[in-house]
Specification:
Strand content of chain A: 15-25%
Distance between the termini of chain A: 47 Å
Largest sheet of chain B: 8 strands, mixed
CATH topology of the largest domain in chain B: FAD/NAD(P)-binding domain
Shape of chain A: elongated
CATH class of the largest domain in chain B: Alpha Beta
Distance between the termini of chain B: 62 Å
Number of domains of chain A: 2
Helix content of chain A: 25-40%
Number of helices of chain A: 10
CATH superfamily of the largest domain in chain B: FAD/NAD(P)-binding domain
Helix content of chain B: 25-40%
Largest sheet of chain A: 5 strands, mixed
Number of helices of chain B: 17
Number of strands of chain B: 22
Structural class of chain B: alpha+beta
Structural class of chain A: alpha+beta
CATH architecture of the largest domain in chain B: 3-Layer(bba) Sandwich
Oligomer: heterodimer
CATH architecture of the largest domain in chain A: Roll
Radius of gyration of chain A: 21 Å
Chain lengths: 245, 598
């Protein structure tokens, strides 16, 4: 049985090179900036950004909130792959990409406002359009205060409710940037089509089968591949394509 | 030199809600369900309301189901009173507990994906400190949505707020509260994405700015929980209450402090020190690792202080181990799936074969802006400020007293959000709000001062040092000598912060500028916490004084704390409401000042 007392109290550090895509809205100027730093194995990329702010460059601007994978604020692209910076440990990044050199860029779902920060309102506008709520709740029978919903029924769409709208899927999606409403927005609507409490099915179907609907999806399944919450996003898009709610 | 800052625009609205987490948006939705015509502006510091700290709550939401034959609201009231170490206000306890099940129905009807039992009814689980028959047995009163109850609430609240036409202002903070003839007239906002200051004139203003966990280095709280609401209230010359009441969870994952649920220990996890000794046997021979939160937290701290902790080389944080290796595969893979995955994700350790690093982590601020049972902000024990409300973690009604029970915070933010909304309705008279003279001057001068500062100090460095110092000196263990040093250190950080130059001079998405403001807020809140903790020469709930280890009846009151000049904290008292005890009914004896023994 491994105790890991020794191995985890010995310091192992990595010499990292972070090339970060910068943007200054004041001068409307973009450039790549490289930072060198030595960091321990289990530091997260958000920890690295914070260290750069304290030790090297206070102007580097990035976003985070919960910093444990529950809010989806710190999405960035690392070597071209959209990920949550709070979940990426140094040693895992080195193993995943086989290098200690990382290129970090903002996600591509909305215009950049500064450095790694994008205009989240514009990104979320798609989700808002998909109406992430019950449009028309069913009336429960008289005397019933709480509806019964079988766990089996919930299990069919529960995974989709775990979405945190980090937009990693939308960044990776090959169709989002043209005219598809996007995987996460589409999934928000699919959830309510599968939720027996929603009466308004027609409006939702109209959106999903519209010009910006699920037929814009090319089934690359990049969404599923990059989802930090490990949701099979493509599965829910496929259900919509089949009409199998 | 420096910037000439201006107020970019003036807006009018019926209700200004500052903080669009669970409490703020529950309030917004209640208002819009009653009055769809209202113009409601909801301000959030994060990128979008869905990113709020409420979303991170895991375990559950306490509410007594009226159809449950074994449970009763009076039992829940007792648990809250006892858990809070007899410092909760009983009128507030009664109101919140009695409002619980209605909130479950509210959420359920609006699409929250609550977990269900085999019959399709709402499931309930057990939670620490929640009992039936005044402590005789465990109760099942926490409803939940898997391990993401907060997210379920947050998604329902922002969805409904969006549906009903709430206007959201994201990436924005309130920097100044406005008053006209003693009543609240709105606030000055800084939208840091666009770099614009806005004056909002509102018929009522609701503060729901959340916690202050960033005062401490090791915390379960979001990066933006910097006590902004408390600091803004203090600067308006208004008090905060029981700031010293800060809860620490015994097992935060090293380094970030992410919460590792109580379930680790209830499933059989054993805490071990650097010699791998199961040390809880020494501190609590009977209950061992299952002792209450505060006892476990103090035991871990003692091990670390006495040199039996382990230093994590990457984060430079000392910790102890939690040993889960002997637990069955089923426990790891099913019962502890989420926490096990946290250890994997944040420490790269496999809890089935390896020891995992944990230490106490700041978790919740029981103290906050004093309010009455409607959420109306108080100037003193006797006087409220018309048109100003505070709800959620930034407020102190006080429901939690000096120690919060798990699952009670989600309940509080919902019931108080609705209660405040109901009371807000009575303030919404016709007509425009007058523009108070000098509105915004304080904000503009503060921010231009930040931009004009010259020197070599770094805001982020001071913030880190302050958080580390507060964790060591005003954390789980407190004593007068350490806390006096803390006060001196805070004065020094404050002095140094004046020499923190801001390299980015443009206002748009200026992270340096926002963090500079946050540092002032953190320092103000930390100062009141430290001085409140010095003043309270006793131990009560989560506030533990090594030099005064017992609760004292001489401190059986709420501390009303104000600070108009940095470091000069003034104290007043507010009595603890005892209305359940004085009701004189069959249960009154349970609501006396009783020992908190489990």
């Amino acid at each position: 049985m491994r105790t890991n007392v020794k191995e985890k109290t010995m310091s192992q550090t990595y010499k990292l090179t972070l090339t970060i895509r910068r943007y200054d809205p004041d001068g409307d100027k973009s450039w790549d900036q490289t930072y060198e730093l030595e960091a321990g194995a289990i530091l997260r990329f958000v920890d690295l950004f914070r260290r750069i702010n304290v030790e090297q460059d206070a102007t580097l601007t990035w976003v985070s909130s919960c910093e444990h994978g529950q809010c989806g604020s710190c999405s960035v692209q690392v070597n071209g792959r959209p990920m949550l910076a709070c979940e990426l440990l140094v040693e895992n990044a080195v193993a995943l990409f086989g290098t200690t050199r990382f290129r970090i860029e903002p996600v591509t779902v909305a215009p950049v406002v500064r450095d790694l920060v994008v205009d989240w309102e514009q990104a979320y506008e798609r989700v808002h359009r998909a109406k992430p709520y019950v449009i028309r709740p069913i009336e429960p029978p008289p005397g019933v205060t709480e509806l019964q919903i079988s766990p089996k029924e919930i299990a069919r769409y529960e995974d989709a409710t775990r979405c945190i709208n980090c937009f990693c899927c939308a960044t990776a999606c090959i169709s989002t940037h043209r005219n598809f409403i996007g995987p996460n927005a589409a999934m928000a609507s699919v959830v309510r089509l599968m939720d027996s409490r929603e009466e308004e099915k027609d409006e939702r179907l109209a959106l999903l089968y519209s010009e910006e609907g699920v037929y814009r999806c090319h089934t690359s399944k990049a969404c599923t591949h990059v989802c930090p919450k490990k949701i099979d996003v493509a599965h829910f898009i496929a259900l919509a394509k089949e009409g199998a709610f | 030199m420096g910037h000439h800052l201006t107020i970019h625009a003036t807006r009018q609205c019926d209700v200004l809600i500052i903080g669009a987490g669970g409490a703020g948006l529950r309030c917004a939705v209640h208002l819009l369900e009653k009055r769809p015509d209202l113009k409601i502006l909801a301000v959030t510091k994060v990128a979008h309301p869905q990113k709020s700290h409420t979303s991170t709550a895991q375990g559950g939401l306490a509410a007594v189901d009226p159809r449950d034959k074994t449970d009763k609201p009076i039992y829940h009231m007792f648990d809250t009173w006892k858990g809070g170490d007899c410092t909760s206000d009983q009128d507030v306890v009664k109101r919140i507990v009695e409002g619980g099940w209605e909130e479950i129905q509210w959420l359920e009807r609006r699409g929250m994906h609550l977990s269900r039992n085999d019959e399709g009814n709402i499931s309930k689980r057990q939670f620490g400190g929640h009992t039936i028959e005044f402590g005789k047995g465990d109760s099942f009163r926490a409803v939940f949505e898997a391990d993401r109850t907060g997210k379920g609430i947050m998604d329902t609240a922002w969805g409904e707020a969006l549906k009903r036409g709430t206007v959201f202002l994201n990436f924005s903070v309130a920097t100044e509260i406005l008053f006209q003839e003693g009543a609240c007239a709105g606030a000055v906002l800084f939208n840091f994405k666009d770099g614009e200051f806005t004056k909002v004139l509102a018929k009522t203003t609701v503060l729901a700015t959340g916690g202050s966990g960033q005062v401490y280095r090791i915390t379960t709280n979001c990066r933006g929980n910097t006590g902004d609401g408390l600091a803004v209230i203090l600067r308006a010359g208004l008090p905060i209450m029981d700031a010293e009441a800060v809860q620490f969870h015994p097992t935060g994952i090293v380094g970030p402090g992410i919460l590792a649920s109580e379930a680790l220990r209830s499933e059989g996890g054993i805490l071990r020190n650097k010699d791998l000794e199961p040390f809880m046997e020494r501190y609590a021979p009977k209950m061992k690792d299952l002792a209450p939160r505060d006892i476990v937290a103090r035991s871990i701290e003692t091990e670390i202080r006495e040199g039996r902790g382990i230093m994590n080389p990457d984060h430079q944080i000392e910790h102890v181990w939690i040993d889960l290796r002997h637990l069955s595969a089923y426990v790891h893979e099913v019962k502890l799936k989420e926490v096990a995955s946290f250890f994997k994700t944040y420490t790269n350790l496999d809890s089935r074969t390896q020891l995992c690093p944990v230490r106490p982590s700041n978790h919740y601020h029981m103290g906050g802006i004093p309010t009455n049972a409607d959420g109306a902000v108080q100037r003193s024990a006797e006087e409220i400020i018309p048109g100003l409300f505070a709800i959620g973690e930034c407020a102190c009604a006080s429901f939690h007293g000096f120690n919060r029970l798990g699952t009670n915070s989600l309940l509080e933010l919902l019931v108080m959000g609705k209660a405040a909304g109901e009371c807000v309705l009575s303030y919404l008279k016709d007509g425009r709000i007058a523009d108070p003279a000098g509105a915004g001057e304080q904000t503009l001068s503060r921010f231009s001062g930040y931009l004009a500062a010259r020197g070599t100090e770094n805001t982020g460095k001071i913030r880190l040092e302050m958080r580390d110092m507060m964790t060591k000196k005003v954390g789980v263990f407190r004593n007068e000598r350490d806390m006096r040093e803390a006060v001196a250190a805070l004065e020094e950080y404050r002095r140094r912060s004046a020499g923190a130059a801001i390299a980015t001079q443009g206002l748009r998405t200026n992270q340096e500028l926002l963090e500079r403001w946050e540092l002032d807020n953190l320092l103000d809140v930390a100062m009141v916490i430290a001085q409140g903790a010095i003043m309270r020469q006793e131990s009560r709930g989560a506030h533990f004084r090594e030099d005064f280890p017992e609760r004292s009846d001489a401190f059986q009151f709420h501390n009303i704390e104000s600070m108009t000049e940095f470091g000069k904290v003034l104290f007043a008292r507010r009595p603890v409401d005892m209305s359940l005890q004085t009701a004189g009914d069959a249960h009154s004896d349970h609501f006396k000042v009783i020992p908190r023994k489990y």
